[in-house]
Amino acid sequence: RSFAQSLLRFLGFIFCGSAAGQAFGGILVILMFKNYRYLFQESYLSLPGWLALATALTLLPTGVLAVSISVKRSRNKQGTLMYLLLLLLCLELSSAALARSYSIRTASQLESVMGYFVHQHNWTCSQDPGNSAVDVMQRKLRCCGVHNYTDWLKASSSSRYHPACVPESCCKEEYSHCRGDLGHVEQLSEEGCLKKLEDQLCFAMTYMFWCCTLLSILELLAGVSNGILMRHQPYHDLSIL
């Protein structure tokens, strides 16, 4: 009983601290799908992020309640804690399952969607920097093409309207006079956008999955500890019966 009381107090502090980690993961997922919404057409892909924010808001009162129960036990508080732990467990497992399935699903779609944008992009060898979705993505990620700059060469060879150059958004930031000339390949970004975007997606979803999984285990421990304390506390309020 004393071990369960100490464990519940420790887990209460963990829950309060992990609320910030959950909020960080949720905001990370939401912003990623918001910034690249033209690549991810489904609006529900940010659902794991919103579930993580709801979890973070629920973790704070749960942690405070767990610490207070470990100091002074109350039947009402113990029952409320059990309900909150059950709610958290549902949110965590849902977030982990969605993050896992969405990461596999979106990774398989990214290459075809990005390839479509590259072939449909209309650019010229001029000083116009371009403000299309592809240009914004290449500047933000500091990348060029789907795999590398040769994807733009394939797009230009397949259409007579495309010039033999790359968009200026492929240029590195330190080369202010770069115009996408293929004669100066060293001025272009080496990495493709697909790998960089997949790395960001993998980091966000993996972070969400393991954070939710670990917290689910801790919530089960908190439920067991709270159950032990409830078992050793008789119902004094019903003794009159």
From TrEMBL:
Keyword field contains Transmembrane: yes
A Pfam family reported for this protein in Swiss-Prot or TrEMBL: Tetraspanin
Membrane topology: Multi-pass membrane protein
GO cellular component terms listed in the entry, alphabetical order: plasma membrane
Stored InterPro entries: Tetraspanin/Peripherin, Tetraspanin_EC2_sf
SUPFAM superfamilies the UniProt entry points to: Tetraspanin
Entry's transmembrane regions: 7-33, 45-69, 81-102, 207-229
Subcellular location: Membrane
Taxonomic superkingdom: Eukaryota
Keyword annotations of the record: Membrane, Transmembrane, Transmembrane helix
PANTHER family found in the cross-reference section: TETRASPANIN
Protein name as it appears in the record: TSN3 protein
Organism listed in the record: Platysteira castanea
